[in-house]
UniProtKB/TrEMBL annotation:
InterPro entries: Ppm1/Ppm2/Tcmp, SAM-dependent_MTases_sf, SAM_mthyl_Trfase_ML2640-like. It holds the Pfam family LCM. It comes from Helianthus annuus (Common sunflower). One of its GO terms (biological process) is methylation. Belongs to the UPF0677 family. Keywords: Methyltransferase, Transferase. One of its GO terms (molecular function) is methyltransferase activity. The lineage of its organism: Eukaryota, Viridiplantae, Streptophyta, Embryophyta, Tracheophyta. This is Methyltransferase Ppm1/Ppm2/Tcmp, S-adenosyl-L-methionine-dependent methyltransferase. It comes from the Eukaryota.
Length: 325
């Protein structure tokens, strides 16, 4: 998919047709949730405001007025000032990359459906919007508060929006903190079958975990390569990126394409925003931040031109199976 960028006059505005019940739910999110949980709504706002390239009719519902308006104002300012990269573009590119790689992974299993597990699912809507999942069982895992709020928002929106139709064969929401040791046990209790081909999606989640817990999650997924055909789709921050929020971001890997094979994955492919498979026609300015970084060796921590930190986000696809392919 290739996209174009509307100018600041024509950028699609959010509709914001919220009921009082939905507004009250979002007020609870803003007053009671910490910044990690709130990031689920901020991500939904990114999908909603880039809806000319990301088809997600539920994104506005899950985003809430505050995050939509804040991001919309930033986008209009960026377009007015001809900024080399527009606010939210990284969320749009990341969403499109995960969507396309998920479709290819499901197809690679050769039919018969698959399992798709979203860790830190937040306000993800893939079970409702991706045709490639119509024969797949989807499992969403996140904090109990997030899973409950997601369900409640959907119920509160009935009548305001077209009632969402689930495309996936099935969807199970599992309320558990993946920092807890029993998250995989609860996944199994919800019907997950280790012997069935599985795609694991870790989108915008792994860097929130402490190092030991992140490595534990990755090892559990890698261990499944010895049982069945397993695909991991994940984004990794490098060390410099975690400095953007020292309180929230903990785990990093400067070389995830070396880390994952050491855990048991046999095939790893790494992309950066702006690479041919992670551009989607949304990064038109050759001087944008992502192109400046892509031209530098990954070992360089600070840009030689101005000394700014080289903050990178790696999009990684890893796979493995019992026969090592």
């Amino acid at each position: 998919m290739n996209g174009s960028l509307p100018d600041h006059h024509n950028w699609p505005q959010p509709v914001l047709s919220y009921s009082e019940a939905v507004r009250e739910l979002h007020a609870t999110i803003e007053s009671e949730w910490d910044s990690v949980k709130q990031s689920a709504c901020q991500t939904a706002a990114g999908r909603a405001l880039w809806n000319h390239v990301v088809n997600d009719p539920l994104a506005e519902l899950f985003a809430g007025e505050t995050y939509l308006k804040n991001l919309y104002d930033k986008i209009k300012k960026d377009r007015l000032n001809n900024a080399p990269e527009v606010s939210g573009v990284i969320l749009a590119v990341r969403t499109l990359w995960f969507d396309s790689k998920l479709e290819l992974a499901v197809e690679s299993f050769g039919g018969g459906g698959a399992q798709v597990v979203l860790l830190g699912a937040g306000m993800d809507t893939r079970a409702y919007r991706l045709e490639c999942l119509k024969e797949s069982d989807v499992y969403e895992i996140d904090f109990p508060e997030v899973m409950q709020m997601k369900h409640t928002l959907l119920q509160a929106a009935i009548g305001l929006i077209n009632e969402p139709t689930m495309i996936a064969k099935s969807l199970r929401r599992i309320a558990v903190d993946i920092r807890d040791d029993d998250w995989f046990k609860k996944l199994m209790e919800s019907g997950f079958i280790p012997e069935k081909n599985t795609v694991w999606i870790l989108e915008g989640i792994i860097y929130y975990l402490p190092h030991s817990q992140a490595m534990g999650v990755l090892k559990i997924i890698a261990d499944n390569c010895r049982i069945t055909h397993t695909v991991l789709l994940a984004d990794f921050m490098n060390k410099q990126s975690t400095a953007l929020s020292a309180t929230n971001y903990h785990f990093y890997s400067d070389w995830p394409d070396q880390l994952l094979p050491s855990l048991g994955f046999s095939d790893v492919k790494l992309s950066q925003i702006g690479d041919p498979d992670a551009d989607y026609g949304l990064l038109h300015d050759p001087h944008n931040l992502f192109n400046r970084l892509r031209g530098l060796p990954r070992s360089i921590q600070n840009h030689p031109d101005d000394g700014t930190p080289c903050r990178r986000l790696y999009l990684v696809q890893a796979s493995g199976s019992p026969n090592g392919s």
